[in-house]
Amino acid sequence: MNGEQLSIAVTGAGGRMGREVIEAAADREGVAVAVAVNRTATDPVAGVPVDDAADLRDLLASEAPDVLIDFTGPESAVAYAEACADAGVPLVTGTTGFADAQIDDLRAASDAVPVLKASNFARGVAALRRAVREAAAALPGYDVELTETHHNAKRDAPSGTAKSILEDVEDVREDLDERVHGREGDAPRSPGEIGVHARRAGDVTGEHEVLLAGNRETLELTHRAGDRGVFAEGALDAAAWLADRDPGWYGFGDVLDAGGAE
Ligand SMILES: NC(=O)C1=CN([C@@H]2O[C@H](COP(=O)(O)OP(=O)(O)OC[C@H]3O[C@@H](n4cnc5c(N)ncnc54)[C@H](OP(=O)(O)O)[C@@H]3O)[C@@H](O)[C@H]2O)C=CC1
Ligand SMILES: O=C(O)C1=N[C@H](C(=O)O)C[C@H](O)C1
């Protein structure tokens, strides 16, 4: 970092989250957007010109930002991670929907630069995940069903956050080893199932609900994002924290454990 000023690059600058990050950066003291790119031509966002994503490597070399924030799609995120590794620029990515091989590619980039990947930058989701782990461990034998709801333009299903929560549940409840995505026809529930339900409707920002049921009682744990600003703020906190780290693989929990942005 150059003194107290954090210089960021933003990919997917024309998308819902890219715009939100640029707008949040404009509102935050000590943060400047040095590079903003998109695959397709995009008008300036909050006064920041948006360049062609094909020029990212040149722009990273000429502008030398402290960190790149990426909310795009899996293929692009992997390509941008490779550009970051080559340019020595730390990467924060909130992109979801990666295949396992693409995660391996991201991890390879983290040999060269710090890479922070998070399926959700809301602090409430971090708290939800802790609560779900505790509840699932405390309620052995209870059925678990997860429902996520997002806007009608979301591409990947189930959401990245839902997959993270599923991993949390499976980690503390080894008896739950079969993910069942929706049910249809003659489909009685078997004990090892975790039901997974993805709803797409309107402009819902993002909701995740975990239902635990058994022993004549139910427990529901729900997070609702009010707007995308909550994700953008978390991503900026992560960027500020990551800029001075050593190469390696990080999560949003590392930022929160350290007390948030420095
Ligand atoms: N971790 C978190 O907290 C959050 C994560 N997300 C995730 O961020 C990602 C982007 O979400 P959102 O901003 O709503 O999406 P949008 O579709 O609104 O924006 C995606 C942007 O990235 C560009 N892009 C580049 N490569 C790809 C690609 N391979 N597929 C799709 N778009 C691409 C698009 O450019 P062009 O128009 O030129 O194609 C577009 O500008 C998703 O994976 C989403 O799940 C979203 C919210 C919070
Ligand atoms: O695409 C979105 O919008 C969101 N994606 C993330 C996910 O897949 O979990 C996070 C958030 O729920 C919004």
Labels describing this entry:
single chain, 262 residues, alpha/beta, 5-stranded mixed β-sheet, 8 helices, 35% helix, 25% strand, binds NADPH dihydro-nicotinamide-adenine-dinucleotide phosphate, binds ligand LZUJQKHR, diaminopimelate biosynthesis, cytoplasm
Strand fraction: 25-35%
Mean pLDDT: 97
Q: Main β-sheet: number of strands, strand sense, barrel status?
A: 7 strands, parallel
Assign an overall shape.
elongated
Please tell me how large the radius of gyration is: 19 Å
Task: Tell me how many strands there are.
Answer: 12
Assign a percent range to the helix content: 25-40%
Strands of the widest sheet, in order across it, are 3-2-1-4-5-6-12
Backbone structural class: alpha/beta
Alpha plus pi helix count: 8
Low-confidence stretches: none
Give the SSE order as H and E letters: EHEEHEHEHEHEHEEEEHEH
Small-molecule binders here are: NADPH dihydro-nicotinamide-adenine-dinucleotide phosphate, the ligand O=C(O)C1=N[C@H](C(=O)O)C[C@H](O)C1
Distance between the termini: 12 Å
What's the structural blueprint in terms of helices and strands?
Layout: E1 6-11, H1 16-27, E2 31-38, E3 51-52, H2 56-63, E4 67-70, H3 74-87, E5 91-93, H4 100-109, E6 114-117, H5 123-138, E7 143-150, H6 160-172, E8 178-181, E9 193-200, E10 207-214, E11 217-224, H7 229-242, E12 248-250, H8 252-257
Parallel strand pairs: 1-2, 1-4, 2-3, 4-5, 5-6, 6-12, 7-9, 8-9
Antiparallel strand pairs: 7-10, 10-11
NADPH dihydro-nicotinamide-adenine-dinucleotide phosphate (NDP) binds next to α1 and α3.
